[in-house]
Request: fold
Amino acid sequence: MVIKSPQDFGAGILFILFGAIGLYVGSDLTFGSARNMGPGYFPMIICGLIALIGLIVTVKSLAIEGPAIERIRLRPIIFILLAIAAFGMLIAEIGAVISSVLLIMFAAYARRDVNPVETVVFAVTTAAFVVIIFVYALGQPMPVWWGR
Amino acid sequence: MEVFEHLATGFMAAGSLENLMFCLIGVVLGTLIGVLPGIGPIPALAILLPITFGLDPLSSLIMLAGIYYGAQYGGSTTSILVNMPGEASSVVTCIEGHQMARKGRAGAALAIAALGSFFAGTIGTVFIAAFGPPLASIAQQFNSPDYFALMLLGLVMAIVLAHGSVLKAVAMVLIGLLLGLVGTDINTGLTRYTFGLSGLWEGIDFLPLVLGLFGIVEIIRNLENPPPPREAISTRMRDMWPTKKEFREAYPAALRGTGLGSLLGILPGGGAVLASFASYTLEKKISKNPRKFGTGAVEGVAGPEAANNAAAQTSFIPLLTLGIPSNPIMAIMMGAMIIQGIQPGAAVMTTRPDLFWGMVASMWIGNLMLVVINLPMIGIWVKLLSVPYRLLYPAILLFCAIGVYSTSTEPFMMVLMIVFTVFGYVLFKLGCEPAPMVLGFILGPLMEENLRRSLVISRGDPMIFINRPISATLLAATLLMLCLIIFPQFRKTREEAFQEE
Reply:
């Protein structure tokens, strides 16, 4: 078995997984009948279709040439996700200003060749700016500093 | 004339100092984000969505509509000056507009695009005012089977218009529908697909979903494959005015584009992208000298730009009268309306006339503002292109994070955003386009409910969809579209159309 279209093969497997999980998790929902649709009726049909398409896409990927999957670069995605996670976990504890600064610092390291001084200056100004817009101008309720 | 009475109501509502201000902020922010290469209207709307939440419904809708037009205008500017389409609907503007710019007619191309769009926007506004109410009364005849058929047609159209593989687009729509069903089933009160997480009881939150899929994935994509730095072609204010010859070529094309765009905008699945491609093809077909296309044909800028703006306006009609979004952008608008506590549909026009007409009027005001701020200030927008991406993306990311936090302080929302970022990243690597998924996500619960009701009425007999004239017609159209996808000739054209990006 040779995979001729890696992108499509991956997509097909993803769809099959999606459909299968959907069918499995939804299996305890009542299916009902057309006349009296249960909560499982529509989702089960959809999951079935997703899995079916996944199957077709997978089979096709074995027969027809297609694009390869581009190399995954870990650095950008990991730092971006870390930035969001740090912000989300910390904002309630240490307030919007410091968590914003942290988010920008983390995000900046998603690239190579970071200029630390520029990043710190930029992080502080942007954090101030964003907090002014959201908290003072738009009146969104969020802790600005810690200890609240 | 009732139309003018309605419009007067609208201008009264939209013309308040406060709303004018929000309209201005909307178009400026929209242009600002739209000018940035690679950020189209969908990420622009997603990123800016949170700042409209604190406003009252009318102001927030006015601002969102402004962001949408602004992003489109900004997209044309980048297309012409940098040859980088910010979004699918300005791809064709890129083809001819950038060629004009390289011949030293950048200013004229910008002016033609702006004036063409403004003209189309004006006609589009009148179009909505004139046809909105009659369409809303047609909408009253719509019953569950008809709604279901209409949504099916819309989804099939979204598949036709999606990039890349048709099968994958179908799967994306279906996954969207499934994600839309997560949460409490309204009929039985049972929770579905919540995996025991209380944060999912009310369904998957819209904002983390769109921000993750569009806002943040976009950043990661750009970091992985940095867009090559490109020189913007500079232009001066005094070069803006088109020559007589250019003007003569442009205005009939703009007229045709407006007509075509207004009609295509109303169709399910229609919208700016479809309209601009259709108008470009039309201009090329009827031109006496088709060979000049590709070398900076004025008609190829005026027509598609007018068409995409007209369609952008009129694609609000199905949303505002039927409560059904016709494309992924309208799905985001609908998501925003629901967050504001407005259920879009024919009822809006009668229960909140100020909201409906105010929004319509604000579209015209917004278009006028865009011409005024875009042409003289073009230099500033071009400068914006030189803001380095290394500063831009952390700020955008912060905006997304604060946006989510400000609507819900639940840490779970951040988790959701991270999940959808990862999901969007996987989809990107596997060559699946997420836009049709958003449409499915919004339509999922509506489709299920209308299917259920239809089948309750007919006692389980699926013939109900064929026996009702409205749904039968819509289903026939759906079938036709499906045939078109399978029909090889059309498939080739579709692939070619997307090749040009």
Chain B is about 75% helix and 0% strand. Residues 91-141 of chain B form the longest helix (51 residues). The CA atoms of residues 261 and 307 of chain B lie 4 Å apart. The mean pLDDT of chain B is 84.
